[in-house]
Structures are given as structure tokens and as C-alpha cells.
Write a structure and sequence with these properties.
Layout: H1 2-16, H2 22-44, E1 47-48, H3 50-58, H4 65-80, E2 85-90, E3 93-98, E4 103-109, E5 123-126
Parallel strand pairs: 1-4, 2-5
Antiparallel strand pairs: 2-3, 3-4
Length: about 130
């Protein structure tokens, strides 16, 4: 019997609490939408692993904003086809990219590939 009373009191306390005003609710909704928008933008950005950063610098490969936009489009196309790890060939450069995380894993110049054997990919995208 005591439990019922204390549980009911907690419920009654919650019922008696003041509801947020319409303005507060609208502000909360705007904040949630802003957060969602920022999250979606960040999720759509191409990331570069530390290993790939080193390879890009070593091989003098410059990824401009325009090139990153093309790479992002190539990743989207590969994703639509169900590719998990892709070789992206752009100009004279090759980029091994994890499609799900949108991360460039490593990079090389096409001419500098010694063995010309590339493993652990399941798709190729020509840009």
C-alpha cells in the first residue's frame, strides 16, 4: 500500500509540472534541426586517414575542394552499387577508399605503383 502511494505521488508530481511554452518548444525543435543538419553535413564529408595523409604528402598529391567534391560523388556512386572498398582513379592518382565511412585509406600515383596489383577492393570508380 505504501508503494502505491509513493508511486502515485511521483506520477502526480510529474503531471503537475509546467509544460514548456510554445516558444520554448519551437526553439528546441530548431536546435534539434540545426544539430541534425550539422551532423548530416559532417557525415557526408570525405575523411582522410593519417596513413593516406602521409601518402598524399609523400607523393605530392593535392586534393583541392573541387577534387574532394568529385571524390565524394564517386563514393556516393560506389555506395549506390553496394561497393564496400573502392579504388578511385582520378587523373593520374589512385585512392583506396572505404565507402561506408567515406574515408580515403591510402593514395598513390598510377605511374608509381610498383606491382600494379591492388587488393582488398570490391569496386573501381573512374572519375
Amino acid at each position: 500500500m505504501t508503494n502505491r502511494i509513493s508511486n502515485n505521488k511521483a506520477i502526480l508530481d510529474k503531471i503537475g509540472q509546467k509544460k514548456p511554452s510554445v516558444n520554448q518548444g519551437a526553439r528546441l525543435n530548431q536546435n534539434a534541426q540545426s544539430f541534425r543538419r550539422v551532423l548530416e553535413e559532417k557525415a557526408s564529408e570525405v575523411k582522410i586517414s593519417k596513413h593516406a595523409e602521409k601518402r598524399l604528402q609523400m607523393r605530392n598529391i593535392n586534393l583541392t575542394d573541387q577534387r574532394l567534391t568529385k571524390i565524394s560523388g564517386a563514393i556516393d556512386k560506389a555506395s549506390e552499387k553496394g561497393v564496400k572498398d573502392a579504388l578511385i582513379i582520378m587523373d593520374n592518382n589512385v585512392l583506396i577508399t572505404n565507402i561506408k565511412s567515406k574515408t580515403i585509406v591510402t593514395a598513390a600515383n598510377l605511374d608509381d605503383l610498383e606491382t600494379r596489383v591492388i587488393t582488398n577492393i570490391d569496386g573501381v570508380v573512374l572519375v
